[in-house]
Amino acid sequence: MSDPPDAGGDVPVLLEARDVVRTYRLGSRRGEDPVEVHALRGVSFEVDRGDYVAIVGSSGSGKSTLLNLLGALDRPTTGVVRYDGQDVRSMDDRELAALRNGSIGFVFQSFHLLPRLTALDNVQLPLVYRASTVKERRVRALDALGSVGLADRVDHRPTELSGGQQQRVAIARALVTEPPLLLADEPTGNLDTTTGGEVMALLERFHRERGMAVVVITHEPDIAARADRRIELRDGLVLSDTRRDVGGGR
Ligand code: ADP
Ligand code: MG
Questions:
Q1: Whose CA is nearest to atom 22 of ligand 1?
Q2: pLDDT tens figures, 64-98
Q3: Does a structural domain hold residue 208?
Q4: Residue range(s) defining the domain that contains residue 58
Q5: What's the pTM value of the predicted model, to 2 decimals?
Q6: Residue 63 Cα, ligand 2 centroid: separation in angstroms?
Q7: What is the rounded distance in angstroms from the CA atom of residue 150 to the CA atom of residue 164?
């Protein structure tokens, strides 16, 4: 995508992390010093609209902690996360809920589907909080399930679906609100290589067709190699941030 630089009001930066620190304080017994885990120790980068970023790094390097902060599921100990220029700290609960529910899609390794609900009801969930009619929600959820190739599985519950199908339901749920950003934490971690590749191809289609930014955590080199940009974390710091050289490009 070619973004016009400095087009007033049309800033390409979607998400910004500035000196983000996250320290977990583990519950200590009375009189003992609390144990601190320095999960992130000062992380800064920007994600543009339509970016496709892989976040890599060994287990414990802070990847999930970072993704939770980018998705406003958690707050930094110090530092700033801005979504569309707005400091997430300045948002009240209603604004945060609207951000998480409407502007950001989440996909997790273990799918996080509600087991008692059908695929259709799982996908409708993010729409329940929106001003839309029952019929409209149903139409949109059916459309989303169709777009991930599950039109014939809408009445199935998660246990009646394969892992790959469950992840596709989770993707439909993440995308049903048509968010500008998708955050995925090891989305292929529970899938075999072929199915994982299919799931990534699906995310990439939404990235291409809708210009949706994708930030995906992975420890699989094959998955990371598909992204346009690769950020490597080590011990809570950015070790490298490299953009793939597109032939003939910049
Ligand atoms: P990754 O996703 O790269 O494996 P995490 O972000 O999950 O890494 O974890 C980074 C560090 O923070 C690890 O040392 C982990 O043990 C610790 N950690 C993660 N979540 C918590 C938590 N809720 N409470 C305490 N420590 C945590
Ligand atoms: Mg993790």
A1: 24
A2: 999 999 999 999 999 999 999 999 999 999 999 88
A3: yes
A4: 51-75+92-242
A5: 0.91
A6: 5
A7: 11
